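Section: Multi-chain targets

For targets with more than one molecule, the full set of components is provided together so that the structure can be written out for the assembly as a whole rather than chain by chain. Components appear in the order listed by the source. The example entry contains two components.
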Amino acid sequence: MRFLRFWWEFVVGDDWVVAAGVVVALVVTALLQVWWLMPIAVVALLYLSLRRARA
Amino acid sequence: MSAVFLVLSAFLASAVEMVEALTIVLASGIARGWRSSLTGVGAAVVVLAVVVAALGPALTVVPIDTLRLVVGAFLLVFGLQWLRKAILRAAGLKALHDEDAIYAETIAEARSLDASGFLLSFKGVLLEGLEVAFIVLTFGSTQGSIPLAAAGAAAAVVLVTVVGVAVRAPLGRVPENAMKFAVGVMLTTFGIFWSAEGAGAHWPGSDASLPGVLVFVVAVSFALVRLLRTPRVVTA
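Its structure, encoded as tokens over all components, is:
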């Protein structure tokens, strides 16, 4: 249990939305094969995560 | 003349890859402690040596895109965690020092190696090291001399390592949150670049677009700090 908690905190961290969003963005990038999607996704995820932290 | 060109090409291409690895090792060492970071480097070098010795020229069958995707996604999620906290601190929404967390981290570090620092350095050096091995094999085999290509790559490794040792101490004097901000920016930049490449996207100009991604992440981060700092208008 401690082992799983360590990996969850290590990989996912404070905001699971960021980790889940990165996975979704990578799946879409793999489907569309476009380079510009990841930078846009990162901006959106960072903004969303900061708003959640501020609320 | 072609021998000089081969050594120079292998040197420059390997230097680019080694600078990428050095950036991650420095970021990891400063943020998570040198002991864990350098242990990660050592472990990656051992794994690299075993892989290169075992596979030799067959090394080109290693699925480098899968490795880029996994390492890139990991760095991106990790980098965004760092960047998010650094932006919140820079915007004044989070304390610059969290004494409880620092105490817990210090105790944990004293007891064992820091897993984050170890894994960050390990993955960065392993991925870049494999890319250097590919460069030596592809440049060397097409130009007819793998030892000359290896000599060029070895010179790049030595030069970048010397630079890394030289800049380590001055970097340690940079204010804590500024350094954490920079670490978050670096990890996020490499994460965006590698994960998109691993997912099959092609960056315009290949590795040359990396500084562009860096500038983009820095600009976005500063814009978010400004946005969060803006005082709310209180209506009567």
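Chain B touches chain A at residues 69, 73-74, 76-78, 80-81, 83-85, 87-88, 93-94, 115-116, 188, 192, 195-196, 199-204, 209, 213, 216-217, 220-221, 224, 228 (CB under 8 Å).
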